[in-house]
Design goal:
Shape: elongated
Order of helices and strands: HHHHHHEHHHEHHEEEEHH
Helix content: 40-55%
Radius of gyration: 21 Å
Largest sheet: 6 strands, mixed
Strand content: 5-15%
Number of strands: 6
Structural class: alpha/beta
Length: 272
């Protein structure tokens, strides 16, 4: 779908209608429409011809689109197709292809850093209540997402967590203590950075900005993920990406250093 969106943007930037793009490629307008709707794939040869016809000169960007077009990955998330909402699969696929991940959370521990008991408590609190089978599918899916941090090809990850998330007990005291211990352990990994935003901070008004930034092969292929009522909302327009990048830098600048954050989390754990 992201490939389809970017091809449509290239055509629009060239000032061409779909029928004109089709004529340059020697295909029917219906074929261009299917490609731009994500309903049909496109070969490397045709993609490069489209890029040339659209006067796209950013070679690195075009190479990244080619990699997207020719990728045949069927990741672990495919086993959940038809069982979980498509946004769950889309998030796992996005994380798999990301070059880096940056996340800000204010109410909960970020999903990639959650323990099984913590995740189960969150999913159990949903309205309407989930059937037991669906609940366990969500928990298992969330735990499998951790492969991007703990697997053979770990991604650089920075998580910024508000003190509120460290204090809210989504389950009982023991589960909260175990979650904080797990968070401390994760923060020691070379690819993981954890920062805390404490309550005792003047001038902080960004508590609405829970989000994730996933790095693309090139910056213009970055994606932001925001919370939405029923599913994750994927944002890829350059203007909105700029907003999310600015928000992340602002919150990062107000957070504690990784070292002080570990001390803060450890202190909270001892309180429990």
């Amino acid at each position: 779908m992201r490939l389809a969106i970017e091809l449509r943007r290239l055509r629009d930037a060239a000032g061409l209608a779909a029928r004109e793009g089709a004529a340059l490629l020697g295909v029917s307008p219906a074929q261009i429409s299917q490609i731009e709707a994500g309903l049909a794939g496109v070969s490397e040869k045709r993609l490069r011809r489209l890029a040339a016809n659209y006067a796209a000169t950013d070679g690195e960007f075009i190479d990244a689109l080619v990699a997207m077009a020719t990728d045949r990955t069927r990741g672990w998330w495919e086993e959940y197709r038809g069982s979980l909402p498509t946004s769950f699969l889309g998030l796992a696929e996005l994380e798999h292809h990301a070059t880096f991940l940056r996340e800000v959370q204010f109410q909960y521990i970020p999903g990639l850093l959650q323990t099984e008991d913590y995740a189960r408590a969150i999913f159990s609190d949903g309205i309407p209540e989930l059937p037991d089978g669906d609940l366990e599918l969500r928990v298992r899916h969330r735990m499998q997402r951790k492969v991007i941090l703990e697997g053979p090809d770990p991604k650089p990850y920075e998580g910024i967590i508000h003190e509120a998330a460290l204090r809210v007990r989504v389950s009982d005291r023991a589960a909260s203590r175990a979650q904080l211990a797990s968070l401390l352990e994760a923060s020691e990994a070379g690819n993981v950075t954890v920062r805390v935003v404490p309550f005792d901070l003047d001038g902080f008004g960004g508590s609405w900005a829970a989000m994730m930034l996933a790095g693309g092969a090139v910056p213009r292929l970055d994606t932001a993920v925001g919370d939405a009522p029923h599913a994750a909302a994927f944002v890829d327009s350059e203007a909105q990406l700029g907003v999310f990048r600015t928000l992340f830098r602002r919150v990062e600048g107000m957070s504690l250093s990784p070292e002080r954050s570990r001390d803060f989390i450890n202190g909270r754990a001892k309180e429990l």
